[in-house]
């Protein structure tokens, strides 16, 4: 019953933020990625307290535990599974430079496990895991043309 309750937990959804902003970048420009949890739902380490009335008067608390994230860059390459949540320029560590222009569907995939506490007991691991797929974020990779002009032209 605990394992089923864990899988029914309304988890926060993993999402990806891309920098440069507005989901546009240039070929060969380092593009920085960061994983962010949605506002709704329970993210890792947030505790979901279940109704004791549904559990024979037992206080049941369930806590999602972050295991890993995989970044899918949309061009056939990925990074992970990793515990690295990335970050913005200049300190982010999940960085990708695209070699071709186009629109690439970027997505993150998170894996969570869970723990349960019964009537205030120590946290106990729940068997199994939850695999969460974040929404697809279209990233437009652009090219630029350089032109030299003579003065006065």
Summarize the topology.
Elements: H1 2-8, E1 14-19, E2 24-26, E3 31-37, E4 48-50, E5 60-72, E6 78-82, E7 95-96, E8 102-118, E9 124-133, E10 137-142
Walkthrough of the structure:
The protein has a single domain, classed as Immunoglobulin-like, CATH 2.60.40.10. The chain has 1 helix and 10 strands; from the N terminus they run αββββββββββ. The protein starts with a helix and ends in an 11-residue tail after the last strand. The protein is mainly beta and 153 residues long. It is rod-shaped. The mean pLDDT is 93. The longest helix is centred in the first third of the chain and has 7 residues. Strands 2, 4, 5, 6, 8, 9 and 10 form a 7-stranded mixed beta sheet that branches.
Task: Quickly give the structural class.
Answer: mainly beta
CATH level 1 name? Mainly Beta
Low-confidence runs of at least 5 consecutive residues: none
Percentage of β-strand residues: over 45%
CATH topology: Immunoglobulin-like
Pattern of helices and strands: HEEEEEEEEEE
**Residue-averaged pLDDT:** 93
**How many domain regions?**
1
Number of helices: 1
Question: Which outline best applies?
Answer: rod-shaped
Number of distinct beta strands: 10
CATH superfamily: Immunoglobulins
Based on CA atoms alone, the radius of gyration comes out at 21 Å
Helix content: under 10%
CA distance, first residue to last residue: 77 Å
CATH architecture descriptor: Sandwich
């Amino acid at each position: 019953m605990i394992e089923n309750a864990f899988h029914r937990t309304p988890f926060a959804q993993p999402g990806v933020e891309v920098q440069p902003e507005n989901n546009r970048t240039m070929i060969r420009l380092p593009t920085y990625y960061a994983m962010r949890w949605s506002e709704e739902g329970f993210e890792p380490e947030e505790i979901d307290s279940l109704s004791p009335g549904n559990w024979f008067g037992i206080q049941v608390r369930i806590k999602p535990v972050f295991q890993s994230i995989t970044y899918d860059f949309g061009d056939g390459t990925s990074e992970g599974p990793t515990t690295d949540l990335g970050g913005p320029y200049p300190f982010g560590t999940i960085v990708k430079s695209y070699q071709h222009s186009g629109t690439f569907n970027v997505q993150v995939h998170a894996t969570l496990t869970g723990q349960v506490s019964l009537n205030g007991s120590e946290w106990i691991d729940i068997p199994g895991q939850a695999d969460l797929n974040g929404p697809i974020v279209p990233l437009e990779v652009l090219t630029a043309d350089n032109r030299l002009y003579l003065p006065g032209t």
